[in-house]
Amino acid sequence: MVEDAESKGPAWTTDNDSRVTRVGRLLRRTALDELPEILNIWKREMSFVGPRALDVEEQRYLEGIVPGFEHRLQVLPGLTGLAQVYNPTDDGHEKFRYDSEYLQCMSPWLDMKLLVLSVRNSLLAGWDHRRGKPDQDDELSDSSSSESQFTDESD
Question: Is 127 left (phi over 0), alpha (psi -120 to 50) or beta?
Protein backbone atom coordinates (compact mmCIF):
# COMPACT_ATOMS: atom_id res chain seq x y z
CA MET A 1 0.00 0.00 0.00
CA VAL A 2 1.07 3.54 -0.54
CA GLU A 3 1.89 5.78 2.40
CA ASP A 4 -1.16 6.96 4.39
CA ALA A 5 -3.42 4.60 2.39
CA GLU A 6 -6.19 4.37 4.97
CA SER A 7 -6.79 8.13 4.86
CA LYS A 8 -7.45 7.85 1.12
CA GLY A 9 -10.45 5.56 1.38
CA PRO A 10 -12.03 2.47 2.93
CA ALA A 11 -9.88 -0.49 3.93
CA TRP A 12 -11.48 -2.75 1.31
CA THR A 13 -9.57 -2.73 -1.95
CA THR A 14 -11.40 -2.37 -5.24
CA ASP A 15 -10.50 -2.70 -8.91
CA ASN A 16 -7.76 -0.26 -9.95
CA ASP A 17 -7.28 0.85 -6.33
CA SER A 18 -4.74 3.68 -6.36
CA ARG A 19 -3.52 2.71 -2.88
CA VAL A 20 -2.02 -0.59 -4.09
CA THR A 21 1.59 -0.48 -5.31
CA ARG A 22 3.02 -2.70 -8.08
CA VAL A 23 4.81 -4.83 -5.51
CA GLY A 24 1.63 -5.09 -3.46
CA ARG A 25 -0.32 -6.14 -6.54
CA LEU A 26 2.25 -8.89 -7.27
CA LEU A 27 2.20 -10.08 -3.65
CA ARG A 28 -1.60 -10.19 -3.72
CA ARG A 29 -1.86 -12.05 -7.04
CA THR A 30 0.61 -14.70 -5.90
CA ALA A 31 -0.81 -14.80 -2.33
CA LEU A 32 2.68 -14.22 -0.92
CA ASP A 33 1.10 -11.62 1.35
CA GLU A 34 -0.56 -14.55 3.16
CA LEU A 35 2.72 -16.18 4.27
CA PRO A 36 2.56 -14.64 7.79
CA GLU A 37 -0.70 -16.57 8.30
CA ILE A 38 1.40 -19.76 8.43
CA LEU A 39 2.30 -18.69 12.00
CA ASN A 40 -1.40 -18.64 12.89
CA ILE A 41 -1.77 -22.14 11.46
CA TRP A 42 1.26 -23.28 13.47
CA LYS A 43 -0.38 -21.81 16.64
CA ARG A 44 -3.64 -23.62 15.71
CA GLU A 45 -5.57 -20.36 15.47
CA MET A 46 -6.25 -21.10 11.78
CA SER A 47 -6.29 -24.07 9.45
CA PHE A 48 -5.08 -24.41 5.89
CA VAL A 49 -8.66 -24.77 4.57
CA GLY A 50 -11.86 -23.25 5.94
CA PRO A 51 -14.00 -20.13 5.75
CA ARG A 52 -11.73 -17.12 5.38
CA ALA A 53 -11.34 -14.91 8.45
CA LEU A 54 -12.68 -11.40 7.97
CA ASP A 55 -11.92 -8.08 9.56
CA VAL A 56 -14.06 -7.64 12.71
CA GLU A 57 -15.98 -4.72 11.18
CA GLU A 58 -16.66 -6.61 7.96
CA GLN A 59 -17.79 -9.71 9.90
CA ARG A 60 -20.21 -7.64 12.02
CA TYR A 61 -21.52 -5.79 8.99
CA LEU A 62 -22.20 -9.01 7.07
CA GLU A 63 -23.78 -10.63 10.14
CA GLY A 64 -26.22 -7.73 10.11
CA ILE A 65 -27.28 -8.18 6.48
CA VAL A 66 -26.83 -11.91 5.80
CA PRO A 67 -28.96 -14.12 8.06
CA GLY A 68 -26.86 -16.86 9.66
CA PHE A 69 -23.53 -15.37 8.54
CA GLU A 70 -22.01 -15.98 11.98
CA HIS A 71 -22.46 -19.76 11.51
CA ARG A 72 -19.59 -19.83 9.01
CA LEU A 73 -17.24 -19.56 11.97
CA GLN A 74 -18.15 -22.98 13.39
CA VAL A 75 -14.69 -24.19 12.35
CA LEU A 76 -11.29 -22.54 12.41
CA PRO A 77 -10.82 -19.93 9.71
CA GLY A 78 -8.70 -21.06 6.80
CA LEU A 79 -5.90 -19.70 4.67
CA THR A 80 -7.94 -20.78 1.65
CA GLY A 81 -11.44 -22.09 1.15
CA LEU A 82 -14.23 -22.85 -1.23
CA ALA A 83 -15.22 -19.18 -1.54
CA GLN A 84 -11.65 -18.09 -2.31
CA VAL A 85 -11.18 -20.69 -5.03
CA TYR A 86 -14.58 -20.62 -6.76
CA ASN A 87 -16.21 -17.25 -5.99
CA PRO A 88 -15.22 -14.51 -8.48
CA THR A 89 -17.13 -11.86 -6.49
CA ASP A 90 -16.66 -10.65 -2.97
CA ASP A 91 -20.37 -10.54 -2.22
CA GLY A 92 -21.31 -11.44 1.37
CA HIS A 93 -24.29 -13.57 0.35
CA GLU A 94 -22.14 -15.59 -2.06
CA LYS A 95 -19.33 -15.90 0.48
CA PHE A 96 -21.81 -17.27 3.03
CA ARG A 97 -23.28 -19.70 0.48
CA TYR A 98 -19.86 -21.10 -0.41
CA ASP A 99 -18.77 -21.26 3.23
CA SER A 100 -22.00 -23.06 4.19
CA GLU A 101 -21.47 -25.49 1.34
CA TYR A 102 -17.94 -26.13 2.58
CA LEU A 103 -19.23 -26.85 6.10
CA GLN A 104 -21.71 -29.38 4.69
CA CYS A 105 -19.18 -31.11 2.41
CA MET A 106 -16.01 -30.95 4.56
CA SER A 107 -13.67 -33.85 3.86
CA PRO A 108 -9.94 -34.50 3.52
CA TRP A 109 -10.49 -34.95 -0.25
CA LEU A 110 -12.14 -31.54 -0.59
CA ASP A 111 -9.39 -29.91 1.50
CA MET A 112 -6.70 -31.47 -0.70
CA LYS A 113 -8.50 -30.35 -3.85
CA LEU A 114 -8.80 -26.78 -2.56
CA LEU A 115 -5.14 -26.75 -1.49
CA VAL A 116 -4.01 -27.96 -4.93
CA LEU A 117 -6.17 -25.35 -6.68
CA SER A 118 -4.86 -22.66 -4.33
CA VAL A 119 -1.23 -23.59 -4.99
CA ARG A 120 -1.98 -23.52 -8.72
CA ASN A 121 -3.50 -20.03 -8.37
CA SER A 122 -0.42 -18.89 -6.46
CA LEU A 123 2.04 -20.28 -9.00
CA LEU A 124 0.12 -18.78 -11.91
CA ALA A 125 -0.48 -15.46 -10.10
CA GLY A 126 -4.18 -16.18 -10.43
CA TRP A 127 -5.38 -14.65 -7.18
CA ASP A 128 -7.06 -11.30 -6.79
CA HIS A 129 -8.83 -11.28 -10.13
CA ARG A 130 -12.10 -10.66 -8.36
CA ARG A 131 -14.32 -7.79 -9.32
CA GLY A 132 -13.64 -6.13 -5.96
CA LYS A 133 -15.91 -5.47 -3.02
CA PRO A 134 -19.47 -4.63 -4.02
CA ASP A 135 -21.09 -1.40 -2.94
CA GLN A 136 -23.08 -1.73 0.26
CA ASP A 137 -26.29 -1.27 -1.75
CA ASP A 138 -25.29 -4.20 -3.98
CA GLU A 139 -24.49 -6.25 -0.89
CA LEU A 140 -28.05 -5.85 0.33
CA SER A 141 -29.50 -7.33 -2.85
CA ASP A 142 -30.40 -11.00 -2.91
CA SER A 143 -27.76 -13.12 -4.59
CA SER A 144 -29.36 -16.50 -4.01
CA SER A 145 -30.17 -17.08 -7.67
CA SER A 146 -26.63 -18.01 -8.74
CA GLU A 147 -25.50 -21.63 -8.75
CA SER A 148 -22.39 -23.07 -7.17
CA GLN A 149 -19.55 -24.06 -9.45
CA PHE A 150 -18.47 -26.58 -6.84
CA THR A 151 -21.60 -28.73 -6.80
CA ASP A 152 -21.85 -28.73 -10.59
CA GLU A 153 -18.37 -30.21 -10.90
CA SER A 154 -17.91 -33.93 -11.12
CA ASP A 155 -14.86 -35.13 -9.20
Answer: beta
Parallel, antiparallel or unpaired: strands 47-49 and 78-80: parallel
- Residue 147 placed within a domain: no
Q: Residue 109 and residue 119: Cα distance in Å, rounded?
A: 15
For 24-76, what is each residue's pLDDT tens digit? 878 777 777 778 888 999 999 999 999 988 888 889 999 999 999 999 889 99
Cβ-count burial 36-58 (b if 16+ within 10 Å, e if not)? ebeeeeeeeebbbbbbbbbeeeb
Q: Per the domain annotation, does 118 fall within a domain?
A: yes
Range of the domain at 125: 17-140
> How much is the pTM?
0.67
Q: Render pLDDT for 90-132 as a digit per residue (tens, 0 to 9).
A: 788 898 999 999 999 999 999 999 999 988 888 887 666 555 5
User: Is residue 1 situated within a structural domain?
Assistant: no
**Would 86 be classed as within a structural domain?**
yes
Beta bridge partners of residue 78, listed in sequence order: 47, 52
Cβ-based neighbours of 110, under 8 Å, separated by 6 or more: 49, 82, 102
Domain count, the chain: 1
- The alpha carbons of the chain give a radius of gyration, in whole angstroms, of 16
